[in-house]
Design a protein that fits this description.
There is one protein chain. Helix content is 47%, strand content 14%. With 79 residues, the chain is α+β, with helices and mostly antiparallel strands. It has a two-stranded antiparallel ribbon with strand order 1-2.
Amino acid sequence: MTFALDPELVQEVLNTVKGIADDGATLLIVTHEMRFARDVSSRVVFMEQGRIVKDGPPAQIFGAPKNARLAEFLRTTRH
């Protein structure tokens, strides 16, 4: 979604998508932008090698990950 965009354009794209979500649209987004996923999502699905490892509300996924692989991934990202 934001690959190879400069930081200003990334923010513009993220703001546009957030606005669409705030208007009540259902969106499916694949992203490595963890802050964005946490702030905009009502449900987060963490996948590895094509399989669902964990899914749930953002507070559960980002706040208290009970899966070791998810916890390791989140330690390496800014969220």
